[in-house]
């Protein structure tokens, strides 16, 4: 009898945990906020170096945090609305789950981080205008021979496994490389790009394709990583995502287009969180 009670209790605990993890994210609509002059919104994310990360005090910082703080100030000044924001880390800090939680969210829900704007994603989400260009980098362990041209990938990376995040544009890039240069490429999945970098730093038989801030963060931490210029790309732009039911998108676009993006406050935020090495890297591929 005791075993049955224990099993039943465990099942209930797991069920409650599952409901909690998969609970729908909800925030107030802009239309409601205009009347009440207050809004509760949710910012969900997967931690991304430079863009949104934990501080020693237990709060969050980064480019996205500062941008949304400025947006809240803009909303207060223009509409008299006081915004109360809740930061919600994605389940297991998983990028794919973060995307899914925004897609199923209702009202004032925003997804923050290194989210590439694509035509396919525009069908599923409302996007802000782009707030920064991305550079994706091909990264391996330091001990791996330098890849000087993509046509040599199958030879130089023979026997190596690619690690990426499901549902990311980085995954799409790997499949493009597999078709064009490396038919025998083995592709494995991790929950976050930080996990991919950890794999590469620990194992010379792995490689990954990550956004530039992950690589710079690893270099700063003196991890055993190396970038291969042949696999670099600067064709992506990052934006903030919202569910299709979110009516804040035009307001966020107005804020971005008001002169904030590219302005002095914006430049200060970018320099503060990315540092000079990131600025130089971004400028080197323009």
UniProtKB/TrEMBL annotation:
Give one Pfam family, short name only. Answer: SBP_bac_3
Q: Which SUPFAM superfamilies match?
A: Periplasmic binding protein-like II
Determine if tRNA-binding is one of this entry's keywords: no
Gene3D superfamilies from the UniProt entry: Periplasmic binding protein-like II
Q: Which InterPro entries match?
A: Solute-binding_3/MltF_N (IPR001638)
Indicate the segments annotated as coiled coil, or none if absent: none
Keywords (alphabetical) are: Kinase, Serine/threonine-protein kinase, Signal, Transferase
Q: Which GO terms describe its molecular function?
A: protein serine/threonine kinase activity
Keyword Transferase annotated = yes
Ranges of residues in domain Solute-binding protein family 3/N-terminal: 39-277
Membrane-spanning residues: none
**Protein name as annotated:** Serine/threonine protein kinases
In its UniProt entry, the species of origin is given as hydrothermal vent metagenome
């Amino acid at each position: 009898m005791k075993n049955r009670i224990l099993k039943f209790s465990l099942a209930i605990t797991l069920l409650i945990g599952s409901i909690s993890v998969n609970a729908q994210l909800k925030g107030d609509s802009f239309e409601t906020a205009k009347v009440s002059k207050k809004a509760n919104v949710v910012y969900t994310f997967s931690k991304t170096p430079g863009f949104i990360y934990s501080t020693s005090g237990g709060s969050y910082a980064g480019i996205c945090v500062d941008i949304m703080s400025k947006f809240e100030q803009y909303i207060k000044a223009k509409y008299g609305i006081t915004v109360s924001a809740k930061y919600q880390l994605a389940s297991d800090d998983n990028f794919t789950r973060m995307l899914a939680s925004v897609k199923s969210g209702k009202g004032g829900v925003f997804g923050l981080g290194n989210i590439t704007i694509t035509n396919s994603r525009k069908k599923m989400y409302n996007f802000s205008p782009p707030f920064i260009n991305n550079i994706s980098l091909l990264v391996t362990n330091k001990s791996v021979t330098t890849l000087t041209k993509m046509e040599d990938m199958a030879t130089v990376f023979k026997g190596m496994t690619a690690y990426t995040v499901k549902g990311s544009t980085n995954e799409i890039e790997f499949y493009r490389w597999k078709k064009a240069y490396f038919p025998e490429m083995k592709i494995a999945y991790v929950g976050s790009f930080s996990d991919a970098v950890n794999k590469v730093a620990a194992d010379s038989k792995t490689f990954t394709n990550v956004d530039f801030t992950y690589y710079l963060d690893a270099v700063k931490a003196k991890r055993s990583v190396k970038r291969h210029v042949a696999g670099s790309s600067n064709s992506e732009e990052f934006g903030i995502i919202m569910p299709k039911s979110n009516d804040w998108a035009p307001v966020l676009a107005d804020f971005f287009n008001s002169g904030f993006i590219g302005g002095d406050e914006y430049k200060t935020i970018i320099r503060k969180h990315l540092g000079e090495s990131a600025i130089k890297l971004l400028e080197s591929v323009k």
